[in-house]
């Protein structure tokens, strides 16, 4: 078992142990927020045919070469085509076919002119200026060509991509299976927000923040309930979660106190501890263990510590298991916009907000930084990475930060 390891070593150890979930085919209506398990190629051109972008007339540009307002050309209108139909006739020199928006361009035509720009009298059409071949025609395959890649394996399906897949005729999408993540909240002090607050008790916020995070990532959070600080109860609940879910997260009970019994419970189950304690604050007491082919990650009970370690360690594992391209959060440099008066013996992550003003990245602290404070997490979009051994931080100094996404 490793102990006191760096965050990067913890991330690598865990990412090496997990792989993308199984594949499944999912109807398009339920695919948003999930990840493609295969490249998607288009079997068709999108649009499938040359079409008209407006209501007008399709004709041959050659017929308009010498045309002017004083010398208009007169063409015969021989047919009308609406969207959803194809023309039966062909445009030849001296003729035009009326086309409505979205209608296929009739054979023989190479330009479309809109209604407002012509004079129509009976079946005769008067044009007053020369037209350029190809104008006002949406070409087949303009959006996506036949045989072109539409989206790559590992892409997150956002609403426009869902639409694009529909547009190329995909109705069942190959996706990585939805992950089930069991969340266990340990602590005698915890009660659910639906209950009355009693003396010495606090509301369980970790289950709610972390399950919301799982949902945001497209995974299914399974509540494994609140468990008292008793070894047998924790053993029973972790064992159940290992049976029912793909990844197990616990909060609380991982430090060195008399009632911090998650590590003992993991031992009792026969799980192999991968590491216990990471060299960072907050979140240092985190533990990771493997049982058969599943992972249990025990996070600190302190709400901000639990959330930050979820951001930095659990989020990347979930992303790898869900098949995302990029698991680890990006890093940036920024100029500090606030002082931070404490020294940092240990590596420390501060909750901050990145603002770009006139092309310069500024990192502002979002509020109190103690490990139990959740409010400063709400507006946080970066975690400022303060190296071990740093003194107080001063406005204007350059800092490194990890970009996170709480939305
Ligand atoms: N002697 C030492 N004591 C502590 C150390 C240490 O090194 N030596 N480390 C401290 C640090 S750092 C942390 S972090 C905590 C970690 O403690 P645990 O992970 O064992 O967590 P708990 O003690 O169970 O809870 C900590 C704190 O968070 C509250 N909590 C717990 N669960 C929830 C929840 N689901 N929702 C909201 N709040 C929760 C809990 O009531 C405690 O206040 O240990 C330090 N101690
Ligand atoms: O490591 Mo504790 O998680 O500072 O907050």
From TrEMBL:
Coiled coil: none annotated. Transmembrane segments: none annotated. It catalyses: adenylyl-molybdopterin + molybdate = Mo-molybdopterin + AMP + H(+). Residues 182-320 form the MoaB/Mog domain. It comes from the Bacteria. Pfam families: MoCF_biosynth, MoeA_C, MoeA_N. Pathway: Cofactor biosynthesis; molybdopterin biosynthesis. Keywords: Magnesium, Metal-binding, Molybdenum, Molybdenum cofactor biosynthesis, Transferase. Its cofactor is Mg(2+). Its EC number is 2.10.1.1. CDD domains: MoeA (cd00887). It is an enzyme of class 2 (transferase). GO terms for molecular function: molybdopterin molybdotransferase activity. Catalyzes the insertion of molybdate into adenylated molybdopterin with the concomitant release of AMP. This is Molybdopterin molybdenumtransferase.
